[in-house]
Amino acid sequence: MQGVYVNVPSADWSLFRELIRKFGWQAETREQLLNRFANSRPTTPALTEEEIMDEIKAVRYAK
């Protein structure tokens, strides 16, 4: 599969959507793509902000 972003005028969207359906392709709007990405992200971070700062300080100020 190859992902492609195409700007289609609103007036032509129904025609383009019909073409997509006939070829068996998949289409999603930019908003749908962003929502899918946002929903796929973890709800809790792997590290807290304090843990990240502790790691930075340990590397930066280690002797």
Chain-wise SSE layout:
Layout: H1 13-23, H2 30-40, H3 49-60
Keywords:
63 residues; rod-shaped
State the helix count.
3
Q: How many beta strands in the DSSP annotation?
A: 0
Mean pLDDT: 90
Helix content: 40-55%
Structural class: mainly alpha
What does the main sheet amount to? none
Strand content: under 5%
Uncertain runs with pLDDT below 50, 5 residues or more? none
- The SSE string, one letter per element, is HHH
Calculate the terminal CA-CA distance, rounded to whole Å: 50 Å
What is the 3D shape?
rod-shaped
Radius of gyration: 22 Å
Q: Could you please describe the fold and organization of this structure?
A:
The structure is a single chain. The chain is mostly helical. Helix content is 54%, strand content 0%. The longest helix is centred in the C-terminal third of the chain and has 12 residues, at 49-60. The mean pLDDT is 90.
Give me a quick take on this structure.
The protein is mainly alpha-helical and 63 residues long.
